[in-house]
């Protein structure tokens, strides 16, 4: 039993880090059929997984087929769908400069906070999560002015930690750790834009 719990634990951790592979979305050209497919395929995937999740929750498909589910997820939407929906929203509706660090926060900050919390407590987990998240925002925004880089990294790091640390029965932290910082930075971008300044740096990832 302990070995199964160990395998499930690390399966979920690896699943998180695997999410960073979705950033391949940005190397696909935006023109022609590839541009259409890069938007259509994620939509179909989310729709397919949502249907499977509905069938699972309603008992038409056994939860035993879904490896890695936590006990509380048996009667509610699984964290993997929350994770996928958040990635889908970020990829299709947010600028790359905002989406990339937010997705990386879900892939790495979340599991790092989880492991740190188990070993060293919640306070240390939040501190570790904040600095890891800050790193992703600083790295993505390295071409921006230093004051913008620091502002975005502090806002992004703080909101990512809040999104992961504040547990909610209906909305999983896999969703909030991505969407909360994205929304705050989007608002910040729009507010600064009212002054006539463009805070977004150039994208890091370009189509092949």
Secondary structure elements and pairings:
Elements (H helix, E strand, L loop, with lengths): L1 H17 L13 H26 L21 H15 L2 H25 L1 H19 L5 H20 L7 H21 L15
Helix pairs in contact: 1-4, 2-3, 3-4, 3-7, 4-5, 4-6, 4-7, 5-6, 6-7
Description of the molecule:
The protein starts with a helix and ends in a 15-residue tail after the last helix. Helix 2 (32-57) runs antiparallel to helix 3 (79-93) and helix 4 (96-120) crosses helix 6. It is 69% helix and 0% strand. The protein has one domain (2-193). By secondary structure, it is mainly α. It is built from seven helices and no strands. 31% of the residues are buried.
The percentage helix is 55-70%
Major sheet size, sense and barrel closure: none
How many domains make up the coordinates? 1
SSE succession = HHHHHHH
Strand composition percent: under 5%
What is the terminal-to-terminal distance?
Answer: 47 Å
Summarize model confidence as the mean pLDDT: 91
SS summary, helix count:
7
Low-confidence stretches: none
Shape: globular
Output the radius of gyration.
18 Å
- Structural class, judged by helices and strands? mainly alpha
The tally of strands reads 0
Q: Any key phrases for this structure?
A:
208 residues; mainly alpha; 7 helices; 69% helix; 0% strand
Summarize the structure.
By secondary structure, the protein is mainly α. The protein is built from 7 helices and no strands.
